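Table 4 source record.
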Amino acid sequence: MLTKRLIACFDIVNGNVTKAYKFQDNIYVSPAEVLAERIYKEQIDELIFYDITASWENRPIDIETVRKVAKCVFVGFTVGGGIRNLDDMYSALKAGAEKISIDSMAVRNPKIITDGAKAFGSQCMLLSTQVKLTGRTKSGYEVFIDGARTATGMDAIEWIRQGQELGAGEVCLNSIDMDGTMEGYDLNLIKLAEKAVSIPIIASGGAGRSEHLKSLFESTDASAGIISSMLYSPRMDRNYSVLELKEYLLANGINARSSLN
């Protein structure tokens, strides 16, 4: 049985981690490198870094903040936002990233997935997708881009299937509907996705209680869950520690990574 991963996702604005509600109303949490050091010490399994305004502002990723965070964490580190070409990918990897996340730019130029996979390997390419249940596509789920500002008319399930064919080695499904709600993951979305692709799936959006992780891993084949709100959202009555969540999962028969004492 594959080990399930717990992932923190940093939504970066001007070098700081923020937390949103349905991709809007971002509130300040912490300087990115300060929070990165804290959650690394708590033994988070992986970290994803999104420069969430880069694509909308038509600029490259905040590479200096990538460097600062990379110096603080020694686990899987994925970065995205403002990645427009192979040069941007190389700069991010040179700054300390392990994987590249492609989202809005992949919709505009799907070939960037293939280019990245050929240059750095499929295992380096994460297709991140902003998804909303609109009822306007075959699956009902539609792809959005530019921080959920722009609807594309593309079916989310067909898009991730295409992304796998183009060379993506992993997919992250970001539910706009559940983002920041702390009401649980969109399990139906994950179940549809796992029928469409064979690459690992990361579920994002909605985690607010330990039971949400248990439900995700028991009822779907998701390989990882993003737990950002649970760890550090100011909107929560109380935050969880990584250790607390891992102990809960292990106690409930979920094959999570054991913490190191």
